[in-house]
Specification:
17% strand, single chain, 5-stranded antiparallel β-sheet, 433 residues, transmembrane helix
Length: 433
């Protein structure tokens, strides 16, 4: 039963009893009966006024509660002129002002945070309490190569993605750096925040490829320039002396078998090889900007295959390419791209131990080149080191072939990847868009 109902019932019963008692007591004395009736009427009027004064604040409080429930913080009450009620109204109005300011501040902060997350160059994935993806920004979807619709609601440990697989094992506060394809480098960091008293996690995926490549190139560039300088300073004078000695036949008249002459020639040839070796490294550092021109990828690839046929036949490797009827026109620096393709095909042939096949496939509409070999493949440990300077899986490798390929691809702005997708199936993909 409501308070005002109780109050009305109490006042009615009380005045009925007073009316009955006044009639019973002053039944014979009309004057006192009339006086008692007047007092009862005055009491009823006072009770009604008290009712109005007491119930009105309660009604206002109820209206204020409804407004708070509806999150309408614009409802305020005017003073009534009564001290107690006005005190209550002042407290309520002050509370409403504070709530409205707080909501405005939270909405501004929420909008700013949403905007910051949406435009952040770092991929951000927000998880719910069950470790499922609740929200992610466009950068995270771009890095993962998946759509937001396909990710939201999925548990990260069950999504087939190398970055999320690594992130699933992270604890709050942990950070790792991963290189899933041997080219791009990412920093994964897991942290948490408190949401309504419960801890929730989020992931940050930061792409470090550009910064690492720049620092890496700067580091090995300095080393190569220093090595080239020292080698050239030594080789130049030594070769000059050797050539002079080889041209002066009178010095070697006593050497009837020509052994000393042969030794000098060997030394000269080795110096030339060393000079060529250092020039390869120097070319890696001095790679000029790509002079892009319209060229037919079919014709360029046919020329590279013809050039590599002798090397392929030496290992009984078939180079299979069936160009389509339509040309595949791309914008490229022909010399640089040709050198990159030669290195790619050379590596594919050398990955095959005895007999095998290297397939070339061009998707004209997608402007995509796929080079597939059935060699021994790339291990996970090797995949993490691919395209790194001075790293090679070959016994006598220099470690500059794939590095040069990487520099040429980046110089052109092409997307590329190299990975073993199945046993005896390694694929190099170049996207020319």
């Amino acid at each position: 039963m409501k308070l005002r109902t109780k109050y009305i019932i109490f006042v009615v019963i009380l005045h009925l009893l007073a009316l009955g008692l006044s009639f019973y007591i002053f039944d014979k004395d009309r004057v006192w009966f009339i006086i008692s009736e007047v007092f009862i009427i005055i009491s009823v009027i006072i009770a009604i006024q008290l009712y109005q004064q007491l119930i009105r604040p309660i009604k206002m409080l109820l209206q204020g509660i409804e407004a708070i429930k509806d999150q309408d913080f614009n409802v305020k009450f005017l003073p009534t002129g009564k001290h107690e009620v006005d005190e209550l109204i002042n407290v309520y109005n002050h509370m409403i002002d504070a709530l409205r300011d707080e909501r405005t501040r939270q909405e501004e902060q929420h909008f700013f945070l949403e905007k910051l997350i949406h435009t952040s160059p770092t991929g951000i994935i927000i998880l719910d309490h069950d470790n499922r993806i609740q929200q992610l920004n466009p950068k995270a979807a771009e890095i993962l190569g998946l759509t937001e619709k396909s990710l939201v609601g999925q548990e990260i440990s069950r999504i087939e993605n190398p970055l999320l697989t690594q992130a699933a094992g992270l604890k709050a506060g942990e950070t790792i750096t991963v290189k899933p394809d041997g080219i791009n480098t990412y920093k994964l960091q897991r942290s948490h925040f408190i949401d309504r008293g419960f801890q929730r996690g989020f992931l940050m995926i930061e792409e470090l490829t550009a910064e690492i490549l720049a620092a890496e190139k700067n580091a090995y560039g300095k080393v190569i320039r220093m090595m080239a300088h020292e080698v050239n300073n030594t080789i130049g004078p030594v070769n000059s002396i050797l050539q002079s000695a080889l041209r002066t036949d009178s010095l070697w008249q006593t050497q009837t078998d020509g052994q000393l002459n042969n030794a000098l020639q060997v030394a000269f040839d080795r110096n030339q090889n060393l000079n060529h070796f250092m020039r390869n490294f120097a070319d890696l550092v001095k790679l000029p900007p790509a002079n892009k021109k319209q060229t037919d990828l079919n014709l360029l690839l046919k020329a590279v295959i013809e050039l590599m046929q002798i090397k392929a036949q030496g290992k009984n490797v078939q180079l299979l390419f069936n160009p389509g009827p339509k040309p595949c026109i791309i914008a490229a620096d022909v010399q640089q791209l040709e050198q990159a393709l030669i290195n790619i095909v050379k590596n594919a042939i050398e990955a095959i131990e005895t007999e095998g096949v290297v397939n070339f496939d061009i998707e004209v509409k997608k402007r995509l080149l796929t080079i597939t070999d059935n060699g021994k493949g790339i291990t996970d440990e090797e995949s993490a080191q691919l395209f790194s300077p001075f790293f090679s899986t070959k016994k006598d490798g220099q470690g500059i072939g794939l590095t040069l390929v990487r520099e040429i691809m980046l110089n052109h702005g092409y997307e590329f990847s190299l990975k073993t997708i199945a046993q005896n199936r390694t694929v190099f993909i170049i996207n020319f868009n």
